[in-house]
Design a protein that fits this description.
alpha/beta; Rossmann fold; eight-stranded mixed sheet
Length: 276
């Protein structure tokens, strides 16, 4: 497993440049999943990433898995306080700037081995949103999956524009009881005198409707959780809707192509059809 660095100019403030690392190779599908963690991304341990990889595999993903590491500037915290809320605002700014400045180049790097699916959790969704907003049309991003997205559900966000830029669909998985978004996101908004709800708690609002946007209410499975519930139930929520279905289609297509090739060879051997 190696880290790949993208040179997109100088860093800003004391923030380190983001890095792209392959966690697991492809297992039959020539596509790449880019996982973008959230608030505590700087403090992620290998075991945390392995848990996410296992969740993606259980949900039916058979392609390559990469980790987009970005410098949030915070470590794991304990009790939620005012300082933590201020950190939340600062990290959100870092996610936005990272997405705008480095996101397009990193996703372009990931797409060298085929189409890309972006899976972003919490504040990682903010990075993903701004990266996609900065990308030109005709990119190789197929699907985007947002988990507990710490991004405004409507006001000031062009969700329909993001959906237009990707080739597949934008899946927004949310829980109406998410305590972290209910507290941190709201306090962070209040600090800036805004009163918006997170897409990871209310879904992307209908005013931003687009045929490529699919809101998936996972409250019954996720409850008040923000991370663990998605790790445990991602396959139940998303598997049959997206990855398992695509993999079954891929297997059937390959089997059909193989059968046709064998049939053509037999017919050619019998002299029924000429050899090419």
């Amino acid at each position: 497993m190696t880290w790949r660095k993208v040179d997109c100019g100088r860093t800003f403030d004391d923030q380190r440049e983001p890095l792209l690392r392959e966690l697991e190779p492809a297992k039959g599908l020539r596509e790449t999943l880019v996982f973008v963690p959230g608030f505590h991304t700087s403090d992620y341990e290998e075991k945390d990433l392995r848990r996410w990889c296992s969740a993606f595999r259980r949900a039916g993903w058979h392609g390559r898995i990469c980790h987009l590491w970005w410098d949030s500037g915070v470590e794991r915290g304990g009790v939620m306080g005012l300082a933590d809320a201020i950190d939340w605002v600062r990290v959100n700014d870092r996610a936005r700037e990272t997405g705008e400045r480095w996101g397009p180049a990193l996703l372009c790097l990931a797409s060298r081995r085929g189409r890309v699916t972006v899976v972003a959790h919490s504040l990682g969704a903010s990075l993903a949103y701004h990266a996609l907003a900065a990308m030109p049309p005709g990119n190789r991003v197929l699907d985007v999956v947002l988990l507990a997205a710490a991004v405004s559900a409507d006001s000031g966000m062009d969700w329909a524009g993001i959906a237009e830029k990707i080739r597949g669909r934008l899946y927004n998985l949310y829980s109406q009881e998410d305590e972290s978004l209910g507290l941190r996101f709201r306090i962070g908004q209040a600090i800036r005198f805004r009163w918006r709800e997170a897409a990871g708690r209310k879904g992307i609002l209908r005013r931003q409707s687009h045929s490529g946007i699919l809101n998936m209410d996972a409250t019954a499975l996720i409850g008040t959780g923000h991370t663990t519930g998605y790790l445990h139930h991602l396959g139940e929520i998303l598997g049959d809707v997206l990855w398992r279905r695509r993999w079954r289609r891929t297997v059937v297509t390959r089997a059909l192509a193989c059968s046709l090739a064998i049939a053509a060879s037999l017919l050619a051997a019998l002299g029924v059809i000429p050899l090419p």
